[in-house]
Q: What sequence folds into this?
């Protein structure tokens, strides 16, 4: 029986059987038919059937349709590259910048440095301002907006703290000894992250009732610290300084490779624990890191002038700012703090999107900075360890502002400049100098004078010929008549308008009651108490004990204290020399140590005879020459039979014709005096 076929309504299987049995072999496959139906759609049939006549017509049209020219390999490659470049360009463009969240808040902060600090850094400046603060803020604002120089030395802050039973490796006579945090004193030497020794510059009193966390480190080490303790960690995008509290939901960050393991360790856990007594120390290492715990975990140390730099940059008051510190590492740490604020401060991101949004789009990936664009134009942003350039955005006051950092070395400071797209060459107009001296340089008169000369010449000459530079210096007086003390002295350096503030301007008159308080407090602490007995004694006798006292900052005291005066006296009783150096900015002469000679010591050793005259009773003369490549140092001494010696004469050859100099800065050398003869001559 013959099967009837309707060519206008064929099922796919029937169509393939008809065509493939026509004597031409397999002309249609299931895959090819499916592809044709997908391309032609309903033009050749319905969902289940195919119209043979319509299918034949469609195939005929397709056969005679003009075919595109076949591209060779190079042309295909060129088109693929163009497509890739278009994708890259689209990814490089940051798109539209968000609107300013609060224009009124932004305008008020740009007009007032104090308002800027209170608005965007309220977690840092959370106490009421003292009169000293307000005076310093006014001078900083004037220096930034109108130019001029300003140096200040303010009392140390309260710091960030570790539990007092935390083990700290200390160094003495080349050996490592363990101390509890409660036992660390100013002057102790602890280990930095490289295993070198660094000096403890400051240590707080024991603090109570702080929010505390237990931080778990790879290997099982557990360290208890307060919420504000600082950690230097790698977040996956770069190294950042983070508080313990900010790590609660982001643990897993890597710690710096450090002595003695130099192995990768991470913060594994962060959890809240009951509050324990805590204490903070500050060290003079370049990175401000020191090692803590039995596993030698690197932790951090401890900002009015730095905040001023951010304000000056975002307001456009200073188009080129340079940060200078005692060392290049310390200067980079200052710049890293500013970078972290610009990246993470939410309020700054809301009110200054023209500066912060392009920075956020980098996501700490340095390679993105070269190609970043806004509306098709390069932002020319730079984001490196020692230099940042804020994005070039039209109508932005911070457009193209430059911030660099440098150590206290003339070669690093000189010649800093930045070329702008419009052809102008920008030089530094504002310089922030943070603690320009180290403990070692403060002890050395020659180093202090050298750094003072760098400051007067290289630093203040950065703006270029005929231009003035605005300068802010935050310094700490380490020794009497060191570099910081001389800069702050308005008689010696009136241009710097030095401001030396103190924690206490007038001490209480009733010394007897305070002595009784001190003894009561020490007895309590020696017997594992917390000093509450002494605090109650102060509460009962406060009127008499406060009489005659004037403190700079009434709001500055710990939660277990009643007043700022009690806080200051606790610091004084704990370490009087450290108190006068760190909080009063007037270090005592005793703090010089036995190895430093005073003027009185030198006068007591003079023999009273004129130079070149041999005293009576002397029977022997000796002379020595200390040979160096550039100069000879010589001295002649007369001796009595009982070995009493008298310096008769001394000097150098060639004669330097000045009273004070060192071998390094000899201006007349042996080679010059001998007509250029070699060493053998």
A:
């Amino acid at each position: 029986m013959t099967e009837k076929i309707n060519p206008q309504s064929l099922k796919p299987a029937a169509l393939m059987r008809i065509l493939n049995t026509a004597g031409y072999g397999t002309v249609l496959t299931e895959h090819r038919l499916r592809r044709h139906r997908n391309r032609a759609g309903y033009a050749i049939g319905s969902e289940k059937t195919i119209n043979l006549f319509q299918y034949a017509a469609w195939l005929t049209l397709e056969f005679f349709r003009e075919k595109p020219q076949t591209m060779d390999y190079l042309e295909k490659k060129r088109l693929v590259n163009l497509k890739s470049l278009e994708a890259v360009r689209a990814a490089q463009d940051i798109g539209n910048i968000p609107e300013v969240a609060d224009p009124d808040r932004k305008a008020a902060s740009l007009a007032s440095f104090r308002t800027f600090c209170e608005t965007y850094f309220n977690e840092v400046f959370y106490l009421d301002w003292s009169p000293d603060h307000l005076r310093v803020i006014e001078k900083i604002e004037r220096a930034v907006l109108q130019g001029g120089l300003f140096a200040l030395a303010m009392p140390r802050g309260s710091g960030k703290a570790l539990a007092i039973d935390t083990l700290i490796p200390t160094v003495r006579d080349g050996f490592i000894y363990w101390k509890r945090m409660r036992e660390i004193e100013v002057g102790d030497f602890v280990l930095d992250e490289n295993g070198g020794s660094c000096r403890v510059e400051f240590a707080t009193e024991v603090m109570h009732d702080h929010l505390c966390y237990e931080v778990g480190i790879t290997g099982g080490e557990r360290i208890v610290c307060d919420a504000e303790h600082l950690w230097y960690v790698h977040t996956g995008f770069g190294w950042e300084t983070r508080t313990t509290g900010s790590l609660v939901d982001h643990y897993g960050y890597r710690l710096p490779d450090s002595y003695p393991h130099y192995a990768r360790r991470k913060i594994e856990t962060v959890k809240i624990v009951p509050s324990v007594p805590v204490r903070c120390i500050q060290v003079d290492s370049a990175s401000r890191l020191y090692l803590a715990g039995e596993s030698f975990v690197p932790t951090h140390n401890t900002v009015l002038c730095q905040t001023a730099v951010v304000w000056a940059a975002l307001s456009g008051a200073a188009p080129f700012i340079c940060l200078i510190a005692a060392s290049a590492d310390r200067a980079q740490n200052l710049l890293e703090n500013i970078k972290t604020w610009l990246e993470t401060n939410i309020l700054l991101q809301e009110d200054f999107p023209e500066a912060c949004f392009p920075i956020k789009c980098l996501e700490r990936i340095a390679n993105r900075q070269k190609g970043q664009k806004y509306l098709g134009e390069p932002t020319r942003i730079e984001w490196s360890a020692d230099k940042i350039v804020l994005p070039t955005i039209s109508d932005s006051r911070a457009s193209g502002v430059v911030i660099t950092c440098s150590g206290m070395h003339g070669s690093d400071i000189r010649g800093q400049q930045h070329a702008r797209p419009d052809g102008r060459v920008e030089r530094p107009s504002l310089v922030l100098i943070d603690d320009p001296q180290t403990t070692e340089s403060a002890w050395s008169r020659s180093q202090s004078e050298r750094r003072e000369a760098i400051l007067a010449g290289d630093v203040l000459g950065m703006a270029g010929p005929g231009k003035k530079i605005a300068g802010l210096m935050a310094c700490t007086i380490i020794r009497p008549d060191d570099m910081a003390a001389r800069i702050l002295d308005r008689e010696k350096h009136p241009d710097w308008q030095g401001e030396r503030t103190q924690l206490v301007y007038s001490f209480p008159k009733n010394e007897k009651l305070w002595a009784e308080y001190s003894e009561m407090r020490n007895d309590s602490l020696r017997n594992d108490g917390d000093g509450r007995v002494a605090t109650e004694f102060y509460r009962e006798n406060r009127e008499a004990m406060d009489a005659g006292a004037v403190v700079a900052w009434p709001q500055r005291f710990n939660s277990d204290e009643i007043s700022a005066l009690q806080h200051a006296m606790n610091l004084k009783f704990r370490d009087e020399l450290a108190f006068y150096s760190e909080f009063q900015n007037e270090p005592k002469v005793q703090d010089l140590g036995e190895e430093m000679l005073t003027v009185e010591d030198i006068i007591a050793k003079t023999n009273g005879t004129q130079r070149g005259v041999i005293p009576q009773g002397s029977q022997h003369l000796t002379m020595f020459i200390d040979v160096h490549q550039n100069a000879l140092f010589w001295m002649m001494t007369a001796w009595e039979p009982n070995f009493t010696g008298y310096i008769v004469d001394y000097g150098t050859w060639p004669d330097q014709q000045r009273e004070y100099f060192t071998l390094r800065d000899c201006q007349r050398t042996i080679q010059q005096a001998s007509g250029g003869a070699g060493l053998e001559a």
